[in-house]
Amino acid sequence: MENKIEKKINLIENLKQIFEKKKKIFITLIISFIIILIGVNFSGYNKKIQNEKISEKYIKAGIYLSSKDLKKSKKIYEEIVNSKNKFYSSLALNNIIENELEEDSEKILKLFKVIENIKGTKEQKDLIKLKKALFLIKINKENEGRKILEEIVSDNSIWKETAEDILQ
Fold first, then answer.
1. Residues spanned by the domain of 105
2. Could you give the residue ranges of the DSSP H alpha helices within 22-87?
3. What global pTM score does this model have?
4. Residue 154: which of 115, 126, 117, 114 has the closest Cα?
5. Helix axes 105-116, 122-138, angle to 10 degrees
6. In the prediction, which pLDDT does 2 show?
7. Residue 80 in contact with residue 96, Cβ under 8 Å?
8. Does a structural domain hold residue 71?
């Protein structure tokens, strides 16, 4: 029994000695951990604020669109696409295309490039490809559109059937 108590005391003494020797390292680790926690929380908060701003812009652009102020609406939708927001960027591009806010097809293709570079799931990326293919077909670039559709089919995407229907 005394042997166990003695071992515990020795262990405690050893831990105290290690802590005394490595005090600076322990304190540095604790401070680093706290700084990382604060950074992660700040990053999450900042992302939430940015998302709210973009959602407000999206609503504002929709209001301009419904009041037939197409220039302001287009400008805001382009800002949203260029913000590279996972959710609102593709919605903004859809509104630009559906409401024919941009006449320059090359500019729309550049906006597609921006959205294609946003991180997302394979299904989301394939949906963007499908929309791009439809747009290319619409602007008489059928070969490029068909090539993208064939790519979707060969990748065995969830959009495979839709792409096959369009190809026929």
1. 2-119
2. 23-66, 70-82
3. 0.74
4. 126
5. 170
6. 61
7. no
8. yes
Number of folded domains that form the chain: 1
**What is the C-alpha separation between 120 and 41, in angstroms, rounded?**
23
Per the structure block, which two tokens stand in for 59? Answer: 């609503």
Instruction: Please report whether residue 164 resides in a domain.
Output: no
In a domain, 115, yes or no: yes
Report residue 143's pLDDT band, with 50, 70 and 90 as the boundaries.
Answer: confident
Average pLDDT, the chain: 88
Phi-psi region of 134 (alpha: psi -120 to 50; beta: other; left: phi over 0): alpha
Q: Are 86 and 118 in contact (CB under 8 A)?
A: yes
The span from the CA of 124 to the CA of 126, in Å, is: 5
Radius of gyration of the chain (CA): 28
